[in-house]
Amino acid sequence: MNLKKNHIPSLLRRLLIAILMVVLVCAPSSHAAEDSQKAKNEANEDPSRFELDEIVVTAAKVEEPVVQTPRNVTVITAEDIAESPSNNIIDLLGREAGINARSLQGTDRQAVIDIRGMGATAASNVVVLVDGVKLNSPDLSGPDLSSVSLDQIERIEVVRGSGGVLYGDGAVGGVVNIVTKKGTLGTQVDASASYGSYNTKDTWASVRGGYKDLSYSLNGALYDSDGYRDNGFLKRGDIAATLAYSLGDYVTFSLGGSHHEDEYGLPGPVSIDNVDSASERVETDYPDDEGQTMDNRLRLGIEIETERFGYLKIDRGYRSRENEFIIGYSDIISKEDQISEIDEQGKSFLVTYDKRYTLFSREHSLLLGMDHYFIDYVREEAPDGPRKNSQTENLGFFINNRWLLTDKTLLQLGYRGNRYEGRFRTDQLVSFSEGKRWVNGEEEDKDWYNDAWDLGLTYTYSEQLNLFASCSTSFRIPNVDELAESVDDLSPQKGLHLDAGGRFAFMKRMEFTLTLFNLIIEDEIYYSEVNRNYENNTIRRGIEADLRYQMTGALYFWGNYTYTNARFEATDTVVPLVPENMASAGLEWHIFDPLKLFLSGTLVGERYDGNDIDNTSYEKLDPYLVCDTRATYQYRGFKVFAGINNMFDEMYSTVAYSEAYYPMPGRNYYAGVAWSM
Length: 677
What we know:
It contains seven helices and 37 strands. With about 675 residues, the chain is mainly beta. The chain has one domain: Beta Barrel (Maltoporin, Chain A). The protein is globular.
């Protein structure tokens, strides 16, 4: 890889080695180690795999039980991640109800999470957070899921449906909040190394602990793979750290940061004639297209919590992303002159205040909040431009009140007001007698005010049955890529959401969740020669069903099914890239105490081509069934694992545009060892 600079430098490797050395010498000791081990043993005595007792923060921006949330919520814990056959975030989320995971290369690089049938614009219609701060980029690329390694994650919370009141712009299909690991009581050290097909090497290590009022977490990861296809390589390095200091019983200061670097090939699509050929689907017409990224994030926070005055949380975040890439390499021009660049500098400021209060002998809560996002974004296209400059600013204020009407009934009402200001300029590279130089274009300003409201109700009929319903709105503002090539009157889209469902639990052995949803979007943004708004509404209706069943002490089964009817109201045609039917199922079998076997399968129905708006222009994408398996054997702190992905060697693609397909990997294998103490 030879762009302007070489990423994944030896520094990252030295950092990972340093973490591994810390892991080797930081064996739990003294009473802290005993307390840590005792806590782990107590947690393992009753390993609940059910969600209704889980506490989530994403749905309300404060801690609340799942049963008090008028949304379909999924919680994926660190234990779930450790025992899943998934090797990356996109595969992990793709097994959940209502989520269609799409990838260009079978990794989480350039991957998209589509919740509730958003289709081609899912990257801009689903908000992804890391510790409550948005990961979404201001362009069409969406959130870079590859910048968060699995070993960093403590839990993932998925909230389906509108998050417009709490999260503002783009929270249409749903919100995914990735919560990273923090410090622990005592010392916790973990390390893992694996090797698999396509010369894939995956190594990570972490150490977490605390001393008195100070806690810390340090994680490092390296990933290197040749990839399934020619020029499909991916090299990645990550390092992340958090510190937290408690000042007395009421105040906590926190500091967290992460550094991500990657290098990747861009093999591009294959034609419909070659997509079903085992030999030709791995080939590429673009052997020299490639890219690299450097992504840095920093977060500073303070939490003040008192029983009398309430809970105040303030977060300040910074992000710097540099992305260089070559698409459509030509031998005629020097390689350096073909490097396109993206430079993104972002700042965020978030404040939330939660006050519990008593009225008519019942406890209620009031949440007030403000968030501000500023992004300076420059995209320079090689070799001859244009250069797109933008500065965007989002300022939102929201209120969310939760009233406990009866012992069984909880009412939630929220509102957000949001001001967006954007300044855009497109520069051209012009030839003069002395050479080429950039000539600034005319600046264009955008100023929009959007609002959203949310009304939700939960009713706990009994310990076994919980019902919920909600009516809410959402909005999405055009991203910088859409505004750069659009009609003059391109405007934000607006959504109206209706959700209703129930959660049923049976004797701590089974949980079943059923959700009905209806989403109507007005002025939905789409691309047809240029970006524009649909003249008529789009409608998405569906059912999400999720089952978890502890069959015996040794057998655990989970499964889900999603039906989505996504259509254009005027023509009754189907929204492209949205499957009508999706289902996943899995089985965990504890064969005997140290040996476990995991099986899972995901079925995705046929979809219309991404550019087939009228449903008649191109061939549909075939349905596919992908099955994975994983076995683990654990002896004390050591674990040996091995797995097979796509074990029936299904040939499939999750994405195609104008019959240009992006094939996913065939059957592949991996094995490794992990150590924890």
